[in-house]
Write a structure and sequence with these properties.
Helix content: 40-55%
Distance between the termini: 69 Å
Strand content: 15-25%
Mean pLDDT: 89
Radius of gyration: 31 Å
Pfam family, one: HTH_1
Structural class: alpha/beta
Family: Belongs to the LysR transcriptional regulatory family.
Keywords: DNA-binding, Transcription, Transcription regulation
Shape: rod-shaped
Oligomer: single chain
Protein name: LysR family transcriptional regulator
InterPro entries: LysR_HTH_N, LysR_subst-bd, WH-like_DNA-bd_sf, WH_DNA-bd_sf
Length: 310
Amino acid sequence: MELRHLRYFVAVAETCHFGRAAERLRLAQPALSHAIRQLEGELGATLFARTTRQVSLTPAGEFFLAEAQRVLDTLADSVHGVRQIAGGRLGLLRMGFTGTAAFSHLPLIARTLKRDLPEVALDVNADLLTPAQCDLLRSGDLDLGFLRPPVRGEDIELRVVESEPLILAVPADHRLAHEPVVATPDLRTEGFIGYASKDSVVNDAVTRSCEAAGFTPQREHQAAGTAVLLSLVAGGLGIAMVPTSARALPLEGVVFRDLTDAGAVELALAWHTGSDSALVRSVVEVLEPALTSPGAVPTATEAPNPEGSS
């Protein structure tokens, strides 16, 4: 039995007319009639009751119609799925996010994928530092990373999408909370709260900014992530320099202030150079313009009220 026999049978069953079915199939009527007789012979059952005036389905034909339509529908779905996968438009994307990027950029990424690649499912792996993401990309446990360069090794491909200025986070009752803008040298006597990881790209950027201002930051406390770091700031244990995206984590008792001369940290899409994934290529092609367009990721703003949350 060939698939064309099923298509021929369905066409006749839906029209109940060999002539109209032949026209739909662009097939000569005698050839169609012969194919249906072959199908009936192979099945050992009569599928159509034929008279000089009409053609109708037999009980066996009615059963076979439902099954033939199911088979053809399943085949059509399979062909569509294969083509979507081959074109990178269907599948599961395992994506890693560093620090606050999940809060600040994930909504835009999710909306963009839903709009442009609706058959791509997103598996989010948050709070992964850059080295951890690179290891997971190399092992094949992540498909795409959203991380902060630089990366070690030459087997990770990067597409930088944003440069985030460092901003200041201080307790609401801190002397600098009243200042709309703060200069980095004004922080030389402050106790800093930093990230616990020795591989923190943000820590390195903070150190470079402070050293450029003529001092070395005194880190008195450490935190595993930004949420805990800001909680320590709210508790009055110190100040912190954090990426702008930290504004996406408003916390009572913390005030954010711009820094006039601080450095910046980059955000980049990253994938393993050896990956031949059509899905990754399609996602990067869609996300890069969305993430780099002006105003793509809204930045939280704050009125200069040190008693409020930010």
